[in-house]
Amino acid sequence: MLVEIITDEQMKKLHVFMLKSFVGPFVATFFISMFVLMMQFLWMHIDDLVGKGLDGEIILQLLMYVSMTLVPMGLPLAVLLASLMTFGNLGENYELTALKAAGISLYRIMQPLIVLIVVLTVAAFFFSNDVLPYANLKASSLLYDIKRQKPELSLKDGVFVNEMDGYSIKVDHTDKKTGMMYNLMIYNHSDANRNYEMTIADSGRMDTDPTGRFMEVELYHGWSYTDEGYKDRNTKTFPFRRVSFEKQFFLIPLEDNSLKRTDEDLFKNSYGMLDIKQLQHAEDSLGKGLERTQKNRVRQMLRQNYVKRKEATPDKDSVMMVETRGEKLDLDSLAGTMDVREQKGAADKALEYARAAQNAFRGEVAIVERQEEIIRRHQIEWHRKFTLSFACFIFFFIGAPLGGIIRKGGLGMPVVVSIFLFIVYYVIWMMGERAAREGALQPWQGMWIASVILLPLGAFLTYTAMTDSAVMNAEAYTNFMKKVVGVFKRRKK
Fold first, then answer.
1. Residue 109: CB partners within 8 Å, gap ≥ 6?
2. How far apart are CA 388 and CA 392, in angstroms?
3. Same structural domain, 110 and 187
4. Are 199 and 139 part of one and the same domain?
5. Is position 359 within any domain?
6. Do 273 and 374 belong together in one domain?
7. Does residue 34 form part of some domain?
8. pLDDT at res. 208
9. Which domain, by its residues, includes 93?
């Protein structure tokens, strides 16, 4: 057989050739994928970065940390693109056909790349577990500080902004061309000894002075409301004041323009900044705390709402006496001793107590649901470290056989097919994560559903390419349709 005449030296050369053919496109597509994902990040946060007077060093740090957080997403896409391009080029140049004609199976051709992908998958897992939490911490804290830099530039229509110390400001609409703001509402609570001072204006302008230490506010056609309240509760009060104005000008002091860094310890306990062991420990602690809270609230609700009783009196109230003796309380027989009026009053009172208990229970349910959501987020983050790494393995077994089937290399058809498959995976993955976050699915179900759906596709494509099946061959379907048309033509004649 032809397989027997292929020496080990020739197989080593083939393996080296396959590795070289894959590594080049992989590196190129990886940086292309990272560039696209980085542009998406900048597009989403461009309003938070422009006009803040940031140093080049700060911007480079942010881009570096953000790029590290995007590696788990860009790596599977690069593997898919590179595998499609590599085997598409081999098929287009008939090199794959020649290798198969020499008796080398597709598995032996893919063998060195399979080993490389396994190593890459393991490395991606350790990156997600060890490096990604650190990158998330640095990127999140730095982006938070950048958003707080020059908060006067972050005014958004219809939203209260509380990032300026002592002031809350809302603007309904801002004309981007003239800079004029309309329907302004400003709360001044900078003085701790006074209540709120509110100013409402039809229009106005805001801009920082040349020194950057103050924000100049110029308002038109409005009212100022001041209520200093009780400065001395025992002796002296101050009345409420309302003043109208046609034009008003004042200054709001701003912090130093230099970037103030927040203590990173405020962010380090978030689920995105933890590794697997820390996530497991946090999940166990939160679960035990939730279990204790639920038991305590159940006991408290039963104690406060299950039986309502009056103060014990020796003459009329026998309920307290029965309970204190530890005997079983027969409520039916007790109700039988009441007349109709007393029974109706007791039923109305019980209904009132039940509604109050129901309202209190709704508030408790909301708190418990929030705690359960936090636990699910920790579980989702735990599974995320595995699913994004395993996606590299899945996409290789989709891209490699598909490239050999379509036999098109370069950046044309492979890019289109890769983007389509990656979008399908990403949409399914996001839907599963959202369902897991809302509790519709278990966290492991939501995070692994995309992998479970695409893994059979990879197995099917690999089997089809290894057996040279005609299932994915367009020419086979064309020939079949020609035969069907020919049969109908003969019958018509």
1. 14, 18, 96, 99
2. 7
3. no
4. no
5. yes
6. yes
7. yes
8. 72
9. 2-148+383-482
pLDDT value of residue 27 = 92
Name the CA dihedral angle for 48, 52, 53, 54, rounded to a multiple of 10 degrees. Answer: -40
Are 136 and 15 contained in the same domain? Answer: yes
Please give the span between the terminal C-alpha atoms of the chain, in angstroms, as a whole number.
50
Nearest-angstrom CA–CA distance, 93 and 196: 76
Predicted confidence at residue 161, as pLDDT, reads 77
- Type of residue at 181: M
Inter-residue long-range contacts of 156-164, CB under 8 Å, 24+ positions, other chains counted: 164/215, 164/252, 164/254
Q: Could you say which of 320, 347, 380 is where a domain stops?
A: 380
Question: Phi, psi at residue 20, to the nearest 5°?
Answer: -65, -40
Q: How far apart are CA 383 and CA 9, in angstroms?
A: 42
Question: Are 133 and 167 found together in one domain?
Answer: no
Q: What are phi and psi of 182, to 5 degrees?
A: -125, 145
* Residue ranges for the chain with pLDDT beneath 70: 1-6, 51-53, 148-154, 163, 191-196, 210-212, 228-240, 255-263, 304-337, 409-412, 468-482, 484-485, 487-489, 492-493
User: Could you give the count of Cα atoms lying within 13 Å of 199 in the half-sphere of its Cβ?
Assistant: 22
